Amino acid sequence: MNIGLIAHDAKKKLMQNFCIAYRGILSKHELYATGTTGRLIEEATNLSVHKYLAGHLGGEQQLGAQIEANELDLVIYLRDPHSSKKHELTDISNTMRLCDDHNIPLATNLATAELLIKSLDRGDMEWREMYK
Question: Which domain holds residue 41?
Fold first, then answer.
């Protein structure tokens, strides 16, 4: 399965810790991330990550194009709900809309991310193969 990983600046360390904790599951799948998030995940976990541009430089749009093409099966977007950066608020809204439009599971916080990653490990996400 193809997993998209994005994290606002205030959540990058949390994303690293999440990927360390679930390294065993994530290593069985293709990972895609915006630039800085992807680099930090690789450094912390030694996992291979397909990296796009930094989110604010177009990486979010690159991942959005993958969502529109139905090439991602799951998106984990750890967002900072208290962010004052306008581009972060716009980017998450666009990603949420795209995931809703294309029926792609999206986690925006740690609790939901853990539920989705455990579901993936149990095989509960196999319906995505048929959906493609």
Answer: 2-131
Overall domain count for the chain:
1
Q: Which positions ≥6 away from 76 have C-beta within 8 Å? A: 3, 4, 5, 6, 15, 18, 106, 107, 113, 116, 117
Give tens-digit pLDDT for 43-71. 999 999 999 988 778 888 899 899 999 99
Q: Looking at this protein, which amino acid is placed at residue 91?
A: D
- CATH number of the domain within which 87 lies: 3.40.50.1380
Reported as a single tens digit per residue, the pLDDT across 102-129 is: 999 999 999 999 999 999 999 998 888 7
